[in-house]
Amino acid sequence: MDLMTMDQQYIAHTYNRFPLQIIGGSGSTLYCADGKEYIDLGSGIGVNIFGINDEAWKCVVTEQLNKFQHCSNLYYSKPSALLAQMLCHRADMSKVFFSNSGAEANECAIKAARKWAAQNKGKEYVHIITLKQSFHGRTLAALAATGQDVYHKDYQPLPAGFLHTEVGNVAQLEALLKEYPCAAIMFEAVQGEGGVMPIGQAYADALSSLSREYNVLLIADEVQLGNGRSGQLYGYMNYAMKPDIVSTAKGLGGGLPLGATLLNEELAEVFSFGDHGTTFGGNPICCAGAVNILSRIDEPLLQGVRNRSSYIYNELSNAKGILSVSGMGLMLGLEIEKPSRQFAQELLHRGVLVTTAKQKLRLLPALNIPMEQLKQAVQTIKDCAAQ
Ligand SMILES: *Cc1c(COP(=O)(O)O)cnc(C)c1O
After folding, report:
1. 198: Cβ below 6 Å to ligand 1?
2. Full-prediction pTM beyond 0.70?
């Protein structure tokens, strides 16, 4: 049985895979079973932020693997403590809860917000306001938080207490805050899955001031945008916001599953023993790798992200067949004349791999993609769009 047939026979049909088998890679080049090499502008949906087979990361991961692979959260281990300290220092936060994915990081954020509100405002303050077109993950609570009906329809009833408001509509947000007893507002500074749309400075300012006025927490979902992708360590930093809770995952582990929920001083003591937990979260191999990743997200790297971003904007903004470019840093959306899936297929045939988000092409390259390769890929996109 060939691999594609086997996969289709035995793996649940939740993914519409591209007809390509990955067998290896180096940096932003992927080697495939068809014998060809591809330029990777997807980095495994924004995960491999230093590309494939990154030497420095592999080295610390292997070193930890040779010590012990897991010890459970019943004991102390160095990698998670080091990583938590680093995250707190870099993001000006007080405590971290580690998990294994973005959805779990958001579950923790939601639980922390609900518990804080019950303790500080009253039991009825359960509502969490999120934005239409948002994406917060696939577990039932993260799904309820996700402001897109298409993901909800087959999974009713969802956990209650989630309200969705239109991005940019400040009056609607304030009306919800007045009508419902709320715990928090949750947002992505750039909506990823929803179409790579930044919320904009004016709306970001409104989120900050209304959250203060109504004494609700601000939760920044930085699962996709965080860890340097926006050109700052976290996306909300571009808008000078100060969220109370930050959830992140994707790029943090550099390719290994790791989620983190960062809590500020106000929430530092919200959880006590037994309130929340996980078997795998904070895995020593994932955390050792993440310490290496985070230590390399420094100002020169971020400047490189911003430079690459400007290059893509300049080249593609007025290119033939491309209607618009949106996004921040190296999380960019291209609105194109052709259907996005078909366009992605055509690019694949020309040796460039991209992801899509709704009707857009979504570019999430490694943060250190060599300029030569980026230029080559951008030229391919231009050629393809112009035809
Ligand atoms: C991918 C994503 C999630 C879900 O992360 P998983 O690791 O797939 O659970 C949540 N929020 C945002 C903004 C994401 O992009």
Report:
1. no
2. yes
Instruction: Express the helix, strand and coil content of the chain in percent, nearest 5 each.
Output: 40, 20, 40
pLDDT over threshold 90, residue 124: yes
For ligand 1, whether the C-beta of 44 sits within 6 Å is: no
Q: Does domain 57-296 have CATH number 3.40.640.10?
A: yes
The DSSP call for residue 216 is: -
In this predicted structure, the answer to whether residue 1 has a pLDDT above a threshold of 90 is no
Q: Is the CB of 224 under 6 A from ligand 1?
A: yes
Domain 3-54+298-386 has CATH 3.90.1150.10: yes
Tell me if 281 CB under 6 Å of ligand 1: no
Distance 1 CA to ligand 1 centre (A): 33
> 182 forms bridges with which residues in the sheet?
127
Nearest-angstrom CA–CA distance, 209 and 203? 10
pLDDT (tens digit per residue) in 191-233: 999 999 999 999 999 999 999 999 999 999 999 999 999 999 9
CA of 113 to the centre of ligand 1 (A): 19
Domain limits, the chain:
3-54+298-386, 57-296
